[in-house]
Amino acid sequence: MTVPAPRPTLEAVAAHAGVSRATVSRVVNGAAGVRAEVTERVLASVAALGYVPNRAARSLVTRRTGAVAVVIAEPETRVFSDPFFARQLRGISRELARHDTQLLLLLSESRADQGRVGRYLSGGHVDGALMFSLHGDDPLPSMAAASGLPTVFGGRPGWEGAERDPQLFYVDTDNRGGARLAVEHLRERGRRRVAVITGPLDMTGAQDRLAGYRDALGVAEADPALVACGDYTAEGGERAMAELLARSPGLDAVFACSDLMAFGALRTLRAAGRRVPQDVAVVGYDDLPPGAWPEPALTTVRQDVEEMGSLMARMLLRRLGVTEAEDGSGAPPASVITEARLIVRATT
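and the corresponding structure tokens:
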């Protein structure tokens, strides 16, 4: 049996580079005060010997774990079946990997989960947190604040006092504007009985999309017969569409506040013998990848979910001091709102 060679040590790198162990430690941990030519020599020795820093020892020096928690306040069945989460996690993971930072995924569905997540965040296991898909009464934001961890949220924070907190950082899309585009498009196509399938209304994104629907119709309150609540799933879209047809059989359009709910609505309309778009036009929200498109292809509102994930990670890394602003502008902005765009296809 071949015995593996021992891992190169800090002392071996120091001997190879002709410097002290302390100098190697400073270079490896990114500390200041080492001349450029010495740094180059140490890094050359690190590469030549294949030295890999010990993360545990490194964290004692830097007081950093090199890891970030991504907390999603949804059950695992939804997280692993909804392409929205895969795209957002891809954007986060790509950005963190560029800066040698680990992603730790934590899911929070029940009170027991919330307690476990809160203890983990307070335990010094991660340097910061990214949180999204939060619901109105979720205790996770207060847990993040109690832990003292730098945190960036996905979605406009909606809890009391959030708008007055200068230390609240978040990334969102223009949900209200995107919904307005969707419904204005339906109205321009001559549709007069436009229904809406909302997301859970304890989430700010769902509230903002409902507000955009009302904006486009020019009403302060929506007609209750034309509003049904879904849960951002295809099954929820099916149920909501059935409710709408029962209450308002004369509806001629529906704005579903997620693509998955729109797919469910299309199934219900097909089963009810309604033609799309001849009888009922349908618009979704998200612009899922082409592989998920139904037939006919869905008109939808595009939000760049992957880029939103990247922006969240970038904002947190800047708060942690891992990266600097590319434009040299210093501290990161407290919020970033990305553009929403209408993509017209066959369902309208």
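(Above: one complete record from the training split.) Residues 83-98 form the longest helix (16 residues).
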